[in-house]
Amino acid sequence: MLQIKPRETDMDTSPAVRGRGITKSFGDVVALNGIDLDVGSGQVHGLVGPNGAGKTTLLGLLLGLAVADSGSLEILGTTVGRTLAVPEGVAGFVDGPGLYPSLTARQNLTALASLRRYDAGGTGNVDDALEQVGLTDVADDRVRGFSLGMRQRLGLAAALLTKPRLLVLDEPSNGLDPAGKHHVHRVITELAAGGTAVVLSSHRMDDLAALCSEVTILATGRIVFSGPLSKLAAESGELDYRLVTSDPATAHRLASETPDLRVVPGRDSGQGPGADVVVRGPVPALDELVVRLVQAGVALRELGPVVPPLEAAFLALTGTGTVLAQTDQEDQR
């Protein structure tokens, strides 16, 4: 099988990506404006932002599909100049993987290995890559009949053949069913554990929370946040929480009486079986409400944020004011 093992050199000390002051324009449109980016080896780094924020442009720079107008960019210790090229060890895709629709999944990978002179290990590594992404059963089916999620997984399998040190993925969870998502998440996690740096763009906050240690948020070509997920979650401030209890009327009253906590108007009925109460406030105040509910003999059946903390932070930082669509596509290159 394709073995993913930790690298013995520079895994923790050598950054996979180091960008400073990167700018890129398309005519009068400024896609990137003074971007700084650091991605360490073995790190999964999320790249998020509203449509048109410049995410696809930045991913293209990392894959050698575009060049910056100014600034400096180092990838895997090599300075990237003003040519469409990146060092060996970089793999991935933007706007979906490039595949031959008339060929089968196995033939696509075999052709790629031959064209780029990868060591395909006969058919062994090709079959192993297909197994890792869960496409063994359709290995001999033509790609033209593949769903979006299957094509995404085949693109990831193609990247695995390169044994990448930097993997760049654009919306890797697009079109995935739960089984496909499990395969993709497992591969990304194992690659990072082996020392590969992964940069992924996603509109799905659940993917970011599950996979990433750090995120960079872009808005209109500028960075509005870059750092650990824990710090990003703290940026969300007070959140709205939905409570489902055995006694909604009592829950409503106790919530109203809890210091620093307020019931969100128009969001609760406060009566009837299964009715919910939506409250807003800091976590300590929410903890106090839970204690009061228990002391009053009210069963708490459900408690969770109306909008996940990471998404709330995103909305606050970008000023978009709307919940992210999970399948939105980048509309600015």
TrEMBL record:
Superkingdom in the source lineage: Bacteria
Keyword Iron included in the entry's annotation: no
Keyword Secreted: no
Residues in coiled coil: none
Pfam families: ABC_tran
MF (Gene Ontology): ATP binding; ATP hydrolysis activity
Keywords of the record: ATP-binding, Nucleotide-binding, Transport
Sequence ranges assigned to domain ABC transporter in this UniProt record: 17-245
Assigned protein family: Belongs to the ABC transporter superfamily.
Matches recorded under PANTHER family: ABC TRANSPORTER, ATP-BINDING PROTEIN (PTHR43335:SF4)
Name this polypeptide is given: ABC transporter
Organism: Planotetraspora thailandica
